[in-house]
Specification:
single chain; 205 residues; alpha+beta; Nucleotidyltransferase, domain 5; four-stranded mixed beta sheet; 4 strands
Amino acid sequence: MKEGPRYKLALKRRRQGKTDYHLRYKLVISQKPRAVVRKTNKYILVQIVEFDAKGDKVIAAAHSKELSKLYNWKGYSKNICTAYLTAYLAGLRARQKGIKEVVLDIGLQTPVKGSRVFASLKGLLDAGIKVPHSDDILPDEERIKCGSISKWAQDLKENDPEFYKRQFSKQLERLPPEELSKHFEEVLNSIKSSFSNISLEGDRQ
């Protein structure tokens, strides 16, 4: 009796290029929760996820659009500053649930030094979550705190006001970009004060 070709159909998400199951397996066997960082066209999402055979369980999460709703964030919704704040919020929520250590899961994103996914990593670290990492992949403090944007905006405002208005047209509707660095600190302090039951002293990695 003749038989047809023998092959195994790949899982749907692998066929669609959405999941690297080899990488996922290595993360899962660590037996630690995963910090899943994902980007959309407009937002940043950070979830603390635990593996379950019936489906992953989200223990804590934060979405960048929450920053404007809960903390009056007037900056961009998906840049490095926002990625840091979103992860910081997710990290504090995870600590409230008893999570102390995670592994970073960036999915199919290309790991680029100083990128938004590693700004998110820095946010988790500063929230007191332990994450295996190398310090040289993290963005510098000035970029994380919107300092580079504020300085550039101030320079453009003084030397090329027309380009300044074009470049920051949408941001100017919410807040002058040269004030973003100060505003970042205000929002960060607001997030900290909303988690006053968590000690943040000595938690920075």
